[in-house]
Amino acid sequence: MQPLQNAGYDRAITVFSPDGRLFQVEYAREAVKRGTTSIGVKCPDGIVLAVDKRTTSTLVESSSIEKLFKIDDHIGAATSGLVADARALVERARVEAQINKITYSEPIRVDSLAKKLCDMLQLYTQNGGVRPFGSALIIGGVYNGACKLFETDPSGALIEYKATAIGSGRSAAMDIFEEQYKEDLSIDDAIALALTAINEATEHDTTSDNVEIAVIKKEDGKYVKLSKDDVTSYIENVLSEEESEDEEIEDSEESEE
Fold first, then answer.
1. Percent of the chain residues past pLDDT 90, beyond the cut
2. How wide is the angle at C-alpha 37 spanned by C-alphas 31 and 43, nearest 5°?
3. What's 169's domain CATH number?
4. For 85, what's the count of Cα atoms within 13 Å in the CB-facing half-sphere?
5. What is the mean pLDDT of residues 88-97?
6. Is the separation of the CB atoms in 187 and 163 below 8 Å?
7. Catalytic hit among 36, 125, 164, 196
8. Which portions of the sequence form the region Disordered (predicted)?
9. pLDDT at 59
10. HEC-encoded secondary structure of 166-183
11. Which of 40, 61, 115, 248 has minimal Cβ neighbours within 10 Å of its Cβ?
């Protein structure tokens, strides 16, 4: 009987396996993949953040589940993975934003905040007696008229995206983005694209009860969470467009036959 390949190498965060892997970091990434889907889309007019808040029980109040957070007036974050870990990261991000405002008398840059947060994430992969954060964040904001969208990783890695997704529906959502994302999207188009991606990731089970959307428009640079009525209106438009497209495809197939 051969020993397991990772036997012993996943017992501490500070131990590399012979092939250069940190298994505890990979396990943290798996925790993120098991979370519900969160979406971020950047467009010339601003940033759109959308999250899926599906619950496992009808007894849970969906309004009590927080996955969208306001970091500063001009920055927001969407999370996936362990909720408690995400909340700790968000609190740290808020503190960093306020420290920058007090020290320099100006709002923090979006990329600076993302890097500071990832520096903290990286420390938790290099010290004994701690574990990596089992959560990932999509950080979006507007600074000096520039729209920025970043994705963090439990390892501390940081990547800037035009559109991205984290959580269990990442692959389905990224396929939608690869096919339908355009550089000249309006805010409404970006919201529609985000909802299309979530609808695909949730296997067409999207309602205003399990979806939240926040936008940060370039014109005012303010984080705003959309009301439930607005979300319902956007979802209805997206679903009606998808139904009409399906009908067109069916009609074309029948005509070919």
1. 73
2. 130
3. 3.60.20.10
4. 23
5. 97
6. no
7. 36
8. 236-257
9. 84
10. ECCCHHHHHHHHHHHCCC
11. 61
Residue 39: inside a domain, yes or no? yes
Q: To 5 degrees, how large is the angle CA 138–CA 17–CA 88? A: 30
Q: Residue 31: which domain range?
A: 23-244
Q: How many domains does the chain have?
A: 1
Those residues whose C-beta lies under 8 Å from the C-beta of residue 19, and which sit 6 or more positions away, are none
Q: What is the dihedral of CA 176, 177, 182, 188, to 10 degrees?
A: 80
- Give yes or no for residue 64 having a pLDDT over 70: yes
Question: Does some domain include residue 254?
Answer: no
Q: Is residue 46 a part of any domain in this protein? A: yes
Give me Rg for the CA atoms of the chain.
Answer: 20
How buried is residue 191: exposed, middle or buried, by Cβ count under 10 Å (0-12/13-18/19+)? buried
Look up residue 122 and give its two tokens.
Answer: 């990286």
Q: What is the mean pLDDT of the chain?
A: 90
Instruction: Encode pLDDT of 106-159 as tens digits.
Output: 999 999 999 999 999 999 999 888 999 999 999 999 999 999 999 999 999 999
What is the torsional sign of CA 113, 115, 120, 124? positive
- Tokens found for residue 129: 């007696």
Q: Which helix or strand (DSSP H or E) is residue 68 part of?
A: strand 68-72
**Is the confidence at residue 14, as pLDDT, over 60?**
yes
- Pairwise CA distance, residues 43 & 72, whole Å: 20
